[in-house]
Amino acid sequence: MAQIQLENLAHSYLVNPTQSWQWALKPMNMTWRQGGAYALLGPSGCGKTTLLNVISGLVTPSHGRILFDGRDVSRIPTEARNIAQVFQFPVVYDTMTVADNLAFPLQNRGVAKATVAARVRQVGHMLGLEPIMNRRARGLTADLQQKVSLGRGLVRSDVGAILFDEPLTVIDPHLKWQLRAQIRRVHAETDVTMIYVTHDQTEALTFADSVVVMYQGEVVQIGTPQELFDRPAHTFVGYFIGSPGMNVLPARVEGDRAHIGSQVLQLAQGIAATASDGKMEIGIRPEYLRVERGGRGLPVQVRRVDDIGRIKIVHCLLEGMPIAAIAGEDAEIPADGVMLVPEQTQIHVYCNSHRVE
Amino acid sequence: MQKPVDNRAWFLVAPVFMLVAFNAILPLMTVVNYSFQDTFSNNQFFWNGVQWYVELLDPRSELGERFYESLGRSLAFSAIILAIEVPLGLMVALSMPKRGAALALCLMLMALPLLLPWNVVGIIWQLYARDNIGLFGWTVNAIGIPFNYTNSAVSSWVVIVLMDVWHWTSLIALLCYAGLRAIPEAYYQAAKIDGASRLLVFLRIQMPKLQRVLTIGILLRFMDSFMIYTEPFVVTGGGPGNYTTMLSINLVKIALGQFDLGKAGAMSIVYTLITLSVCWLFYTVITTREGKEGAAS
């Protein structure tokens, strides 16, 4: 079991990074709770795989320390850390049977034969691999192979954390849910820390108790799915979580008023004047914009309405800038004279992309 | 979708069929034809039935003795060079640099022997291995080991085996190198996490993944070495005595030296059948073994 702490951790593939983009991981401090189910969410190239590899020891960080239960493991090789990793493409030992695959990590560590057999049986049972224990791993379907590779992590009793690097990428869509549910179940049964890297928000939100959103080598927010949705700490979080993402509009903020072009928005509470140095933006989710005809709100031109069944997504232009709103499936969208009425408490103010409280 | 059936479409295959007939089937049939006939001179041929084949396959006859002896030599040669080139090529591939200028240099140096024409390689070794003016032959003699490929069977075999290893090991190495590069990094990372030793990484990851390229490599090297002609012919001319007279050299001697077209024809057919059946056997064994383990991988 392990609680994982990152202390001023940073990584660059260059020797002397000077510019911000040269960091694969910008300096960060965080703690992964023992037994937590975390999702590491971000677009391709944001550094999430690097972070995962730093934790598992496949990459040695250029700066800072990693602590497992208070023990510094930054320079300890992968095989000596109590960690397992499941990769994007299923990694199995082709010529070995499923049972031998599961036994492999234990045999390499010199575990007694009887213990190995017992652990293999137990893990085989947990993952529902019993009927195929004596088949060679080569011929198995991708989802079974992925289970085998997860099993190789679970079989070690010393494993404190299992890291998943986009493990469902090559799995058939109808099996994805099943496999993810099984990973969740395994998590509940075993109480190992799980860190799950993905760029798919649905996957992250359904898997994790706590979602870590990364953007350009930086952790921009850690929170429950609800927190990420309701209070995005960074414009990227607002944009990345939710479909469609949050509307982010450049604005001039004075006290409790935001000016968007010639329009004025009343904010729920004012912000300190000092916080308004820098690039100011306001963000509001399409869910919190009501489409009305006339009335008080932001006058927009409707460009397109996507009826996706349960709801309608209304794409509009506000002062030439795109803005989206969500309307009920029965809502009539008038051709002109449309106003978007925002929910006042759901308007967020961002300074240099970070949320201002 | 209903596919229209029109047998006239077969005519579209006719050009290819004619081409293949012209350059493969007809020449082969000419050989088959000769193998059933005897001739004295003046293009006068007589039907001889399967007599040449009977003689060829009978080890007590003069022709049979020559055939079996040279067949044995050819098989021994193929076995020896495969036993050396496959492990050696594999080792070279495993120890090659992964990237950078060193890799480029390695690849270039290794590709070099593959580009040389067979008789050039033959001439290089013919000179290199001479006991009087050849660096290799002279050095071996200088350190006290008698070495002269013109009068010693062992010396002549050492030269032609070394020459083949020198010429073709890079083929195996390059094939294996390509195979190794195709293994995703995740396999090595997983092996690290599983605590696998270097040996286990080789046995459980690299060897299984190399199976396909090794199959191809062994097949190519077997066929090439079993049919080898030019190099030993240039170096030893089949000698001393008949010690390095491979099947191919024997065939040419019979066909062009003695002008026994019937015997040579029969020998050619048997030669071809041996090559084909060994390749077929080899390929079938490998593919069915893979098939049993499941085609998907």
Describe this structure in words.
The complex is a heterodimer of chains A (357) and B (297). Chain A is an alpha+beta fold. Chain A contains eight helices and 22 strands. Chain A has two domains: 4-236, Rossmann fold; 243-356, Nucleic acid-binding proteins (OB fold (Dihydrolipoamide Acetyltransferase, E2P)). In chain A, the strands form five sheets. Chain A has a six-stranded mixed beta sheet with strand order 6-7-8-3-9-10, with helices on both faces. Chain A has a five-stranded antiparallel beta sheet with strand order 16-20-17-18-19, with no helix packed on it. Chain A has a four-stranded antiparallel beta sheet with strand order 2-1-4-5, with helices on one face. The longest helix of chain A is centred in the middle third of the chain and has 18 residues, at 173-190. The mean pLDDT of chain A is 87. In chain B, strands 1-2 form a two-stranded antiparallel ribbon. The two termini of chain B are 32 Å apart. The interface between A and B is medium-sized, with 29 and 21 residues.
